[in-house]
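Sample pair:
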Amino acid sequence: MLKLIKSLKRRTPLGWLQLSHEKTRLLVALAGIAFSDILIFMQLGFQTALYASNTRLQSHLDADIVLLSPNARNLVNLSTFPRSRLYQAMDVPGVATADPMYVQFSDWKNPQTRQKTSILVIGFNPDRPAFELPELQEYADEMKLPNTVTFDRNARGAYDEAIAAIDRGEPVKTELENRTLTIAGLYEMGASFAADGTLMTSDRNFLRLFPRRRPGGVSLGILHVEPGRDPEAVAQALDAYLPEDVNVLTKEGFIAFEKHYWATNTAVGFVFTLGTIMGFIVGIVIVYQVLSTDVRDRLPEYATFKAMGYRNRYLLGIVFEEAVILAFIGFFPGVGVSLGLYALTRNATNLPLYMTLFRAIQVLTITLIMCGISGAIATRKLQAADPADIFG
């Protein structure tokens, strides 16, 4: 190992010397790699935010098992199933509680701007809140009052003045479904690609707001299992016992169900994946152009090395050295700019767009592969170089 380190120290860094000799070409290559990395970072970030934002509600769901209609597509496109299935579920050993939850998209007036915008309305038993949010316990009694709701303080849109008023204890009223609503309190959730925000209230208030929704038509069934019971085993027993007009999922299965919908049934997931692939291809093309030009311009020098007895392996190592140097140096401005764009997008959209160590390592690995492929293609000219042809 010491001999290897000493040999590396004595070795002339030909790859770096060749890159730094043509500074304009080097800057163009680094800009291209940085652009490619930014594109990949943004696509991967948006894809992660897509899944994270659209599973926030499911992740905070206070449930071990979820019942839903076989026609349900995702959380905001739920069909209904008979409420009687909840009573039947209580007959299965291991089920402790089974409560209904109602979900409906609607338009409401922004309490600050008075403009109409869409909102996701959720109703449940306030004595057993469907979500693990301490604020819902705090405002459980208020949600039982007629036309009284709680609101997501992290909703997307102009709500800062209304939120400040609620924090001061001032009454804030607005309209939904031709009814005047009072916002009793706030909780923290966040926007998603599907909904700008949510309202939560009691199941009775929900049915008052949407009189066409029958109490017997449930959007979701929220089930808890008895302590010490395995939710997976209880879910299998429920699936075997209940009729086919209801599906049974564990909480983890419900989260996976939502992710699968956005990954396979929408154009958004495909677009982000395609964007990542395009960023990778763009990086390969840019780095190949730089390395190919460098090899072509220095063919006489490489031919001289061959005439002196240097093997192809040594010469190829120089080109790959250039590729690795470009990958590492070009990565850092890419990650720096991406950090700024993440913060800008997060503040503008309230989407959970954050840089993680795993993603940074992931993109660095992609960059090394990208530059390695470019180097491999560029060395084809070098392998074909014949000193006799060049000096003949």
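The longest strand covers residues 95-109.
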